[in-house]
Amino acid sequence: MTDSPTPAIRLTGLRKSFGAVAAVTGVDLEIGDGEFFSMLGPSGSGKTTVLRMIAGFELPTAGTVHLGGRDVTRLAPFERDVNTVFQDYALFPHMTVRENVEYGLKVRGVGRSARRARAAEALASVRLDGFGDRRPSAMSGGQRQRVALARALVNRPRVLLLDEPLGALDLKLREQMQVELKAIQREVGITFVFVTHDQDEALTMSDRVAVFESGRIAQVGTPAEVYERPASSFVAGFVGTSNVFTGEVARGLLGRDGTFSIRPEKIDLSPDSGVPGAVGLPGAVGLPGVVAEVVYAGPVTRYVIDLDAGSRAVVVAQNRHHGAPLAARGDHVRLSWHDEHVVEIPTSSKETADA
Amino acid sequence: MTLSAPARWALRATMALGLVFIYVPLLLVLVNSFNGDRTFAWPPHDWTTQWWAAAWANEGARQALLTSVEAGLGATAIALVLGTMVAFAVQRFRFFGRDTVSLLVILPIALPGIVTGIALDSAWRSVMGDLGIGKGLFSVVVGHATFCVVTVYNNVLARLRRTGTNLEEASADLGAGPWQTFRYVTFPMIRSALLAGGLLAFALSFDEIIVTTFTAGPGITTLPIWIFNNLFRPNQAPIVNVVAAVLIVLSVLPVWLAQRIAGPEAGASRT
């Protein structure tokens, strides 16, 4: 998958158990040089444990970790060319911001003046010039986040690991930092491995995403691939919301056997005129149902529909026209979609996604 | 919480009474050390520093003060090293019998001094003596260290619990080896806890009398023992008073400092 002959990171058969609990149950992955790679998954899916094994804080139960072609599986964190931005930032409270940023250079024996210059440069790159003499405790959450980033980047590591670094920020700041992180990554050109449980974050920032499910990777791909062509019903449900139809319902709705997923924004909603198949998009199938819930969410409105064929479907419609919603609770409606938007999901989840 | 006015006054009075009972006698000792009257007539008619001069000139008292300081420093040094090591072991590693070790380390401070004293006395008679290590200053230092370890252990353990291992992981991640991490991150993190624990340990050792009685070798007299020995000699009374005053100051000062160190630090050490 990666164009570079030696990937920045290669994980082979990686496993980790804590006592009887298996946190990671077999991960194979290659991450290319300069890639912005996200590990997405619910809490407890093993993504952070994989990150900690790459950083060297956890010793794998089995498998190997290669960084730039070198086997580092059994090396200590300080022997690896990676740096981490921690979830709680882990800034040293007894040091100033500048001392924090200089720390990695200092312990590696870089001279004082070179240290000063590079720290100033790193702080400038995260727009914190002039904050060097402050203590971390005198800074806001967003500023601390940027200090943590500068402290890691100043060492010019081969790989930067980010463990849910935006989790503690409020929504506005988080969106702003997403844009900044992406810009910084493009500028410095090093590999970013970004752990998050926020699918928006993963989709908007990444070159590729790995979706984690209970200790293994359910799918790897570009954000569009993962979103448009989910490899399992878990991926379909976790990355965005999705209508997943299976078994009887699928046969009734689509006339086919298997498991199918349709994104809520790909479904059209129209009042039921009583004529089957006469409404909706040309060349589309139409299904009758009753509106169970209408949720206004600003830019869009979400409709929950009880289908006559059984099962429920969620439809999202843009609020392009202000005023009345398309339908009210209890209304009879028809759902229609293009057949090409119906994604068949491989039912046996045994085969993990391409790597 | 709101209290009625009478209840408030009653509580204030109770507190005042309690503090008066604790501190007025101590204050009396300090005042009397400057009392010009040999029989401590009250209220004092004239003031003098002659008892302080006499105490300073008293070879026995000076020797005792020196012995106490030596014993206190020795016990504190042992407590700092062992207490810190045990705290790290208990907080950072899981091993068989961890809780038991924790209990065994804390226990000596709860044990009656007389029990510790007897036990150490017999240990010295039956084991250490045969090894050629007789009772002396060293045995006093070891005796004091048994309970001084607890103050350091508790302080360091609490600090380690509060700070976690995140900062040390960050340090290792940034390329620092184990010694660099200890020097630049771990030690600054626990420094004030060590200071507070050490000062408390010194204060504990400095006024200890029971364990000292059982472990002191011939010719080893600490300040509290010296006071005890001279308490019932009427013509020594003013000097004893001065020595007691010194003991009060030297015991209170470390505790006060330890509180000052641990106090503001407690709120601000985590970001």
From TrEMBL, chain A:
What this protein is called in its record is ABC transporter ATP-binding protein
Question: Source organism lineage?
Answer: Bacteria, Bacillati, Actinomycetota, Actinomycetes, Micromonosporales
> What molecular function does GO assign, one term?
ATP binding
Superkingdom: Bacteria
**Keywords from the UniProt entry:** ATP-binding, Nucleotide-binding, Transport
Q: Which residues form the ABC transporter domain?
A: 9-239
Short name of one Pfam family: ABC_tran
UniProtKB/TrEMBL annotation, chain B:
Q: Which residues form the ABC transmembrane type-1 domain?
A: 65-258
Transmembrane spans: 9-31, 71-89, 101-120, 132-153, 193-217, 237-257
Q: What is the membrane topology listed in the Swiss-Prot or TrEMBL record?
A: Multi-pass membrane protein
* Localization of this protein: Cell membrane
Name the keywords, alphabetized.
Cell membrane, Membrane, Transmembrane, Transmembrane helix, Transport
Keyword check for Transmembrane: yes
Q: Does the keyword Transmembrane helix apply?
A: yes
Highest taxon of the lineage: Bacteria
What Pfam families is this protein classified in? Answer: BPD_transp_1 (PF00528)
Family the entry assigns: Belongs to the binding-protein-dependent transport system permease family. CysTW subfamily.
What this protein is called in its record is Spermidine/putrescine ABC transporter permease
| Species whose genome carries this gene | Actinoplanes couchii
Taxonomy of origin reads: Bacteria, Bacillati, Actinomycetota, Actinomycetes, Micromonosporales
